[in-house]
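Report of the visiting student (M.T.), summer placement. My assignment was to run the structure pipeline on a short list of targets and document each run. The first record concerns Malto-oligosyltrehalose trehalohydrolase.
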Amino acid sequence: MTEPQRRLPIGAEPVQGGVNFRVWAPDHQKVEAVIHNEGEEDPYEFACELAKEGNGYFSGLCPKAAAGSLYRYRIDDREAFPDPASRYQPDGPHGPSRVVDPKFEWTDQEWRGIVREGQVIYEMHIGTYTKQGTWSAAAEQLPALVELGITAVEVMPVADFPGRFGWGYDGVNHFAPCRLYGEPDDFRRFVDRAHALGLGVLLDVVYNHFGPEGNYLERFSSYYYGPKSNEWGRAINFDSENCQPVREFFASNAVYWIEEFHLDGLRFDATHAIKDESPVHILGTITEKVRQAAGGRAVLLVAENESQETACLRPKEEGGFGMDAVWNDDFHHCAHVALTGYHDAYYSEYYGSPQELVSTAKWGYLYQGQRFFWQGKRRGTPTVGISPSCFINYTQNHDQIGNSAWGIRLHKLTNPASLRAITTLLMLAPQTPMIFQGQEFSSSSPFLYFSDLNPETSRQVHTGRIVFLKQFTNIDSPEVISTIDKPYELDTFVQSRLDLSQRERHFKVYSLYRDLIRLRREDPVFSTGYLCRIEGAVLGQFGFLLRYFLDDQQRLILINLGREMHLAPMPEPLLAPPLGCSWEPLWSSEKVEYGGSGTPAHLETERFWRVQGNAAVVFQPVPEGDES
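After the run finished, the structure tokens were exported:
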């Protein structure tokens, strides 16, 4: 018989004549696929012994299995465990795996994927985005995101994990979409619906550690872990003995999401914690294979890299990973300090000054090799020659909200007018903007850290979280620590669910985001801001300007996070309009429809430049005499 044609090197795949099973178990002599029906009416069980290939892999065709069959792998005639590459765990990581048929009636044949430029990204946690916490419920809300102006949804990790709720970063079944949100086809329907509406879908994946509970990979091979360690403990083995099948596992996983779920890209969690000294880094390998798998579709590959290494963006030929974009914590941190005045722990490395905010617009990273005293080492690498669109900016995300003591959102930590001004910078800067679910309507729901593991592990997680939070000195006291929500309590999860009716009730905030996104998309300068020459100047203790030059077109943004300023004299050339023109206000964060108090008709007077307090005002040049 000819060998069945497999799509991926591991897992259970329906083929002609049954199901082909393949698993890597180099520490063992015998592996059986045990097929069973646990139903009360007709329980049965039978085993198909898999052939030993001689390279650590076991494989075989089981004619009695089919799509929908439940199974485990029995090792050396002893215990049986779920498939490390299971495509679905209907009862969670501790239960049996299910054979899944990947066939699906896709309607997105004309969809060509997404490129980096022009994106406005929306980060979403499926379990809390809606009250139902399912793919189906989230899909119903996609038209509202299109109306807002979002172009791509970034879904937090969905690899299956134990318990009733979780962020997803402790997943243990990398190929199995979490059963809490629906079945695999529900995920596919979500993506198909998004594409029909013109939305791209990115998935956050975690390739730096396995979760602490429900991980059975080590029962199959001790080689999944190597001798190195990272912040989660033992690091995954990407460069030590017998690492090739481990590399294949993760590369196959990335390809799987692109091929079988039609995803438009991946966001790689904590790439700085992936330890690999191979000639070609595992992320370089994954990037190459993902692009091959996408074929003619464009995919967007994004790295979170706390150490701010631009190697993520360099091509593989230059020792890089060949990715498209990186998260930019520097923008978040300086904006957070500017808005809140908070200056503790890692925020202590930022002043939140106008010059920092100008520099983020011009350079992306603020730390490009300077010493970062909080960490006691240098941080970052130069960004010269890198497109601004490579940097993903945000004022909120799951990490920065959820890893604070009480999951408080930014609008509760600052005044609304200053937040509107910084939101203007976020949405009109040349970098790629990202917003976190509910941010667009100032959701009253916190986003807390929640994780439902076994009691012992849950206590350890809570203790570890308290240790982490103690870096913020205002939290390091018993009376404060006692108020912090426990990750394993159901109410912690329930509190974090969005109330989507607040879109209407908080419509002024929603209108701000909708109109800024429209301005970014439709204005001939801001829509191609990544091609502009950006210049900036500090106007005072809290004020600054940005000026955009694109061929013969220009824009000016004045941002002031303090009291109103009257500039006289004005020895700043960037305030001067183009020859023969004057500045006309194009947009203001203080419009009444956004909750503001209005903007004066004339900001440049005979006596001074008036820089409105706690506001952002955008200007365009018009020929003198043609002012509206």
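The domain at 11-98 is CATH 2.60.40.10 (Immunoglobulin-like). The chain has four domains: 11-98, 121-329+387-453+498-517, 330-386, 532-623. I thank the supervising group for their guidance throughout the placement.
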